[in-house]
Amino acid sequence: WFQQVAHVAEQTIDLDPNRRLAGATPSFDDGILVCPTSAGACVAVDLATRSLLWGYQYPAFRAPWNRYRPTPFPPMGERWADGTVTLAQGTVLLTPVESNQLHCLDLLTGKPRWEPIDRDGMLFIGGVHQGVVFLVGTDRCRGISLETGEPAWEADLELGAARPSGRGFLTGRYYYLPTTSSELLQIDVLEGKVVQSVKTDLVLGNLISYRDQIISLNVDWLACYYQADPLRRLVESRLKQNPDDVWALLRHAELLIHDQRRDEALETLQRAYRLRPDDEVVRQLLVASLMQALEEDFGRYRKVARELEDLIDQPRQRLAYLRLLVDGSLEEGDWATAWKSLESLLASVESHRGSALLGELTVLLRVDPRYKVRFDRWLAGRISEVYSQGDAATRRAIDEKVASTLKNARDLPSLRRLLQVYGAVPGIDEARLEMARKLAQREDGRTEAELIISDLVDVHASASPLLRAEALALQAELMEKSGRPREALAAVRRLQTEFGDVRLPRGAGAAEWARDTAARLLKHPGVEANWPEGKVVVDRSQGPTVSTSYIYAFRTKAIAGATEPGTHVRYDLRMRQIQVFDPFGRIE
Q1: Which pLDDT value is given to residue 357?
Q2: Is the pTM of this model over 0.85?
């Protein structure tokens, strides 16, 4: 038999991507099959009589019509993430992806139990327990009374910087929610409080509970975890039978870490390693636990650093270990150790150059549950901190390292790596100028050269007058080669005004070189364009002009580089271009 549940006049599901991707799945309870349609309606079918029992319509999301820019369907995170119907205690809870409201209906009649509630940042229904509907949002959770639709908690449960990383599961009064901060939150659904937070080695995805284990499915992997209490009983039983059971010792150590008994956990892991030193699983768990101890309390566990260094045999682990040494040493004010660890990191970069792990300075490192940072940015920041706060001996060591590295940096890649890492250290400006010189010789490097020169002249004011004067001279030459004599003239006049008494390496004083160069530039037509002299006459059109402009002006706060006063920026909506105009209205 078959039963039509809805008629969609606009278009079929194969032509409607929003309906097709909604995954409208029926739900069953008490002989009634409730069918969402993702088309503004929900219907119930009585399976005993094979007939429609009721139908319910609701306002669906409709984007305002715009012939030029059609507004798309709300993206994930700005609508309900799951349109599956939730059935609980004789009610139907609807979270349609095409609606921004939560609907509650009677299962038998299809009539609303209470007025629809706005989504207000919620993503999906986690579950229902003892009359409390548990909602999970982008940054908070909420409890709603199933009877009245009113809030069941005094306030929403804020998740802080963490975000849900998948759907959890409900067990009794507790909901287990995975988050992007590599934590599993145990939330009391009735009280609206986090009872416990468990750190995980991976960011968990969608969860299901099977017997005594939890299975996580993420976009990258499938993982399985033990539940604590059943695992305790199993470990206790196996250790009674065999105190040297390595598998049981490893699980016992994990339970001790879970109970915040880290010293006992490390002793247990070290015992397991002595029993089976060739077991890679034992080694990796011991290394991970030692590094976690260093990260949480560097001062207390610093004594294990030597043991940890001997155990590490993978580049990724060595990178993490050296980062911990750097950050821990900085916290304790041990500048010498911090710099030594940074030197080891730099040596690792050179030895693994070309690999995706360490050789590429642009690889992203996880430094916080919320943030990732590029490896070169992290290195530059730490080196700058050591240099600015360290003692005189440490600063001398860094200066010597920079000088020797600069001496051997002959090509563009070497100079680029040098600036990426030591860019915040005083005395590196010579490398900037040398890199700008090399880039200026290449057709495809002039834009980058201009940016480096602009930074050297305007941002790095600590650079010597000689370097800044040479940079301005190079900037003028670049502008002239690029067919921009007016900008070149502006750079020359600035050189003459600010650094006229400096003698350039090219053999002439800055004032003399600027005077000769300016004379040559002034021969270009239109370099000093002026308004024509005389009376200005304005003609105005009489009839009204109706036109639609798709070019929007930006309010420009600052423009770096050699630009003239009056340079402005506009955005062309039709062409989707950012356009830069000079003071005379010409596109740069």
Answers
A1: 47
A2: no
